[in-house]
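Teaching assistant here, posting this on the class forum so everyone can see the example we discussed in section. The complex has two components, and the goal was to see what a joint structure prediction looks like when all of them are supplied at once.
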Amino acid sequence: MTSIEDLISNPPLLLDSSLSQLRYLILSEGLPISEDKQQQRTRCYVWTVLSQTSMEASTQRYLALLKLGPPSTTIYQKIKNDTSRTFQTDPNFRNRVSEDALIRCLSCFAWQTQQRRQKPQFSRIPVSTYVQGMNILLAPLLYSCPSEPMAYQLFTKLCYEIIPTYLTKNLNGAQNGAKLLNISLRIIDPKLSKFLSDNLLTAEIYGMPSILTLSSCNKPLDQVIKLWDFMFAYGFHMNILFVVAFLVKIRSKVFKSDSPVNLLRQFPDFDADEIIRLGVGFIAKIPAQIYDLLVDHLTDPDIYIP
Amino acid sequence: MSIRPLNLASLDEPETSFEELNTTLPRFQSHETFAPEDSAQPLSTSTYIPTPSSVGTSDTGTVFSNSADALWSNRQGEDDQDMEVDHDDEFLNDFQEFQNKKDDFDDAIKTNFHLRNRFGVTPFKNEDFAEEFNRKLSFGDKPKLKQPRSMMELKPKRKLSNNVSSRNSRTVNSVRFKKSMPNLPLANLVIKEEDNEEQDREEQRRFDYKDDDDDTQETILAKFSSDDEGGFLTGFEGLEGEAIDETTSPNDKESVNHPPFLKRKSTSSLPLKISPAQYDIVKHDELLTPGLHRRQREWNTQQELDSFREEEPIRHFSSQNVQLNGPAKIKTIKQQIDHNTPMKKGSMIYNPKTMKWEGNENVLNRFSDVDAVNRKALLIKNKLQRNVDDYTKKKKYPDLQQARTASRNQKVVGNMVLDEQNLRWVSVSEDETDPFAGIPEINLPPVGKTMKKRSSSPFLRSHSQVSPPLFSNDSNGGYQNTTAQARLRKYHSMRTLNGSANSLELNPIFHLSSTALERIYHEENRWCRKLASWFIPRDETIIGVEEETIMDESTINGKRKSYMYEIRNMVINSTKD
């Protein structure tokens, strides 16, 4: 039994300090990548605790949405188009997560989003019923959670509360994320930033997939999971800095490449620990106000970044 | 058979009774019982005497423990050897000896007195003996008269009293009986522990009555008639002492035969002296004890009955002796924990022979009723029937054929068939007009968009019809559902009531199997068990689908965002150093 399992097995004395302790354990020890069902559960439990996503009645809610069946044809078609391509080449994922599960969860999300729209308190950030990339966001959750309703519950937490601005109709938050990526890269690696901008490669082009999917579009998935462990602990704003880390890692290749676009379209396989180490190291270089923007842009749709 | 062998058997009783008496001695208030006022108590008085049976024994026990312990211990070895000898021959010899040499018997009494004197016990006069014997008799009889009343039935007592009136025992009987008295408490103790044993003996007693009715009854009667035989009382008292001598005499060999008989005698005073034939014990839930139940079954088999008839009484006793002697208690305990011990839970009784639980055989009758009477229930037909049905219905209702082949579990109620594809019931025999044909569909607002996809098949409509047969099945059949099934049913009903069942039917993706449902509920429960303490109820409502509450977003965000600065603070702090 790892110390993380030990920690979450016992009721926290003080929730906030226990959460901090759990975060630190994620950073220092990390959760193992394993096919083991119990390990899978532990990861899901840690994610729910860190994001404070209660699973109580999650199954009941999920089934209530599921009974509604598929959403409108247009949404359903979009969903089906994307789910069939989700991690098609990853046998591990295909073994563990069925396309049906992806369809079910995304359909339920579409229903729930429609229901939310009728309630005024959620009108500030109009999350889309479905945007491309949600399937990729959902994939690590279905991959890591022992049951579909739990994955769905975490997914709604992620979409509605953690990165709601990313999922609006015009992807406002993701746009801001790209701008912040650009700014961060300029601060952290000015040479690479200049090279890319000289080649008319903006952050919207090379960074958007990783920003919108919280790096889950990168391979391998197990490393993505580890990145998510960290981001559930310390915040998904760190994803911007991780994208910077991805870029910095391939910078020498980018400089040498005749067509850097092809390199940037799909980052090479990565090691999560290395990316985390790099990303955390970048924090020291990021000014406080930029860091504030990094934090806020996930939930604040009104941020304007020049 | 003659009476005497049995009586002779009773002669040797002291051997066992003494042995057991010594162990039970501390329990008795021997001083009280020796008090003169106690000795004057008549037989008929019903005044309370503390543990009557035990008092009776305490007298003899104390007497002999004083005088005869030494001799007794010396002779035990011989007795054990004698046990091995063939009992039949010895038995008859002893019997003759006893009959012809009555003088020897008297001599034995005399020697006993000498013995007593030798051990410092003051000799008794004949009057004293008579008195004391009276007293002991009264003690001995008390349990017989009292216990049946207090414990259960009056039957045993009645039987005894009949015997008393009809028979008069001879001196020999009474003498032998006298010695048997010490055994009464012992028998009682054993019987209290184990009803089986008692029942067992009771059964044997019944057979004994059949075979040699006179013997047993007369010996039993001895207790009651002994009062009339005052002339022999001196002899009794002597015999009490003589018992020591008897242990040394060749008669010892018969001692093996005696104790069981004594026990049978003593058990006659016990409440459980009920003939199983007279009482219907098995079916009574409240009064039924496992032991009774089992015994009755066992003994009622013809084999067992026959086995007892064939057996010679003497042999029977001798064999029983081994069981009921000292080791009887051990055997009793063993039987209690035996795997054969019948078990009873509620109305269910475990039959160790067949290794089955019995008692609810009629429960299954309900299912035959489903076929015969309750036509509302779904019929579960075997393959053959279904094929025949298919064949007959194919021509009449070709539309159904496809649906039927698609699903193997075709449901038929009366002349209605479940069209599983469209989830509605259709008549088997003839075409029926759709009563909902002219009524437009009413779609719930959020469902409206998906309704476009609906085909215009006449069978497709609201499927609220599906639920009534399903649920009527519940109420009529009383089937037990697992929680998962119940949830599944609830889930189905929710689905159908919502009106989007059609699109769901078309889309199996949105249909979770019962095993999947069970699994996800299980996972949630598991999560709740382990992690509920990590959550403040307030957080739960924020995520809720239905019960989302309006909260100040800034406060939520403020609280939510603080953790996002933790990593920065760590980094900044570490770089400062």
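For the discussion questions: Chain A is about 65% helix and 0% strand. The mean pLDDT of chain A is 91. Think about how each of these relates to the inputs above.
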